[in-house]
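Recall that a protein's primary structure is simply its ordered list of amino acids. Everything else, from secondary elements to tertiary packing, is in principle encoded there. The following example makes that idea concrete.
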Amino acid sequence: MNITCNSYFSGGGVFDAGLIQGGLTLQNSYEIDAAACKVQQENLGNHVKQCDITTKLVADDSAHVMAFTYPCTKYSTAGDIHGVRTGDELFLHAFRHMAIARPDIFIVENVMGMRKFPVVMEAMTSLPDYFVKAFCPLQAADVLPQQRKRIILIGSRNQFNWQPPAVSSRKSLADIIETNPRVTLPKAIRQRMKGKYRDLPIISDPVKGDIAPTCVAHYAKDKSTRLLADSRFPMGVRPYSVREYARLQGIPESFSFDSVNDTDAYKIIGNGVPTVWGEWLGREIQRYYTANQRTQLKAA
């Protein structure tokens, strides 16, 4: 069966790449950022459409699966610091598309802080005629050397025993290190290491079995805050390269960021949903359709 999927707020296609690896056919992918669209087109094809979801009509934009990874800024605890933790309204546009298109399956991914907004959670878990399974928290550290906790909701027309990602094998931080990393060393690294900032850097050492902190979208501006222990560099530390950052998100080696600068690449990677989670969901969705086909045959 050819299982089609539409992806919304899709960024650079980090999550979409996993859905494709998991066996789904990406029909349409919607994203507003031009650089992110460029990366998608470079890696995944011409199904990406640059547009503003808040003004896009649903029309006949139907697919078996609809995946929504709307921005998390207004749900994160960091939003409290900047006074922007409001819940935002983007979830309403995701809900609008879900409610009108009525796909067989919908996927919603966001930070754990989304649970703090009852209106958002009610909309995403109480749509009539859907059975919703919440994976919360889903921990990237089960399969990747990165601390990243998220909530993923799966809504389906039929009840199903959705299974979490396998945790039998996890990559180590040492596994993602490049032999000759291409990195820049901002002056802020030395200043932060010497205590001239309020906070010391988070230094992860692959030799000690550490894992990296959460990949953030603004890493290009804050490289001194998250460092990798590496004796080949001054003061024994350095930032993560773009490719290493991509590996922390489970992005395949074939996925290229050559069409954008490093600042955009870090942003796209940090905003992305781990590719391995997309692959897991794609395979679970295939299992769902196989099980339901068998049920229908038995009923007949």
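The two ends are 19 Å apart (CA to CA). The CA atoms of residues 136 and 151 lie 5 Å apart.
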